[in-house]
Amino acid sequence: MNTIPITTVIDFSPFLGSNNLYGYRDQNNVVLIEPQYLEADKFVTTGFAVVKSKNGLYGIISHTNKVVAPFHYSRILLTVVNHFTIAQVVITYQVRTEFWNWKLVPNLKLGIVKEKCKAFVIENRQLITTKVYTVDPDIKREPFLPVETIGKRFVCIDQDLYKAKRARLKRIVKNYVGMFDNESKIVRKVNNEKVRVCNSRGRKVQSFETIHNGVFPITFKGKEHLVYLNKKGSMLKKAPVIYRDTKRSGRYYVNHEFDMPIPVHLKVIDLKRERPLVDIWKNVISICPVPHKHFFIIEVKPMEEGQIENDFYFMNRLGILQDFLEDETDFILTDYLK
């Protein structure tokens, strides 16, 4: 069982009773719900919990022990977004093959196991999505649809972004990629060649072209250098995706940080360890924007043979390249490493 978040404002704690079943009690050991479940999760902040009944299946109860989702499910996941509780419930069932198939293909399995995952909002019974999968033991699949809470108002469910309104969750965009500019700009994937920036209402603002070869230009003293990203062997957590504004400025960007363009010109090189600029650009592995510090991490193959770790440089928005940081406040490089 999984429950998100694990913190709770409801002072109910599961406990194992003398009958080997679980119930709930408060901090003073006063029994609030009598032991009656095979398993019991903590209550989430909105007042719901996942429990397993004696029939071996899971359901959802409220803090008053009212059943809000029947005990029909093989798995349940709760996610709290603002004042809403998103429930993912999975039911497992078997589909028998047609009788005529048995004669045509004698080795055909007589039944196919399927799973139906339904995501809905408990408070208003709003159905978000339903997916059906065929269970194949040779194929590893996540037990639930991917869910990511973003800030206090947004949640991404299976690549679609929703915003918590007063009465319901409203879908803002499909194929969500990311956000920037204090959650006021949303990026969605249009196709393999383009992403689109929308406002918080989902309306188009601007489009950017995906640069699949990961190449971007930068000049120094009037000479243009092309930077080729060799992503193999990167120590950074996030692989870079390069985009270009082909309609307006022509500037290049990394990932979805569209308010932080890559500098067009390199103005100053300030290195404590000497290394030719051509050699640096030739051996770039990856690049990662750090928006709150207004610089890019440039990951480069090590200059010395036998060196295990890669070299890291820092290039700010003004075009100053350094191999050190003058101000390391609010930044730890290891937070960005695998």
Question: Summed up, what is this model?
Answer:
By secondary structure, this protein is mainly beta. It has helices spanning 99-104, 277-282, and strands at 2-4, 13-16, 22-25, 31-37, 39-40, 48-52, 58-62, 67-73, 75-81, 84-96, 111-121, 127-134, 147-150, 154-157, 160-164, 169-173, 176-180, 185-191, 194-199, 204-211, 215-220, 223-228, 242-244, 252-254, 268-270, 284-290, 295-300, 311-316, 320-322.
Describe the structure.
The structure is a single chain. This protein has helices spanning 99-104, 277-282, and strands at residues 2-4, 13-16, 22-25, 31-37, 39-40, 48-52, 58-62, 67-73, 75-81, 84-96, 111-121, 127-134, 147-150, 154-157, 160-164, 169-173, 176-180, 185-191, 194-199, 204-211, 215-220, 223-228, 242-244, 252-254, 268-270, 284-290, 295-300, 311-316, 320-322. The model is unreliable at 3-9 (pLDDT under 50). The protein has two domains: 2-150, no CATH class; 212-336, no CATH class. The protein has 338 residues and is mainly beta. The protein is built from two helices and 29 strands.
Task: Please compute the radius of gyration using only Cα atoms.
Answer: 26 Å
Number of strands: 29
Poorly predicted sequence stretches spanning 5 or more consecutive residues:
3-9
Strand content: over 45%
Q: Number of helical runs?
A: 2
Output the strand order for the largest sheet.
17-18-19-20-23-24
Protein name: WG containing repeat-containing protein
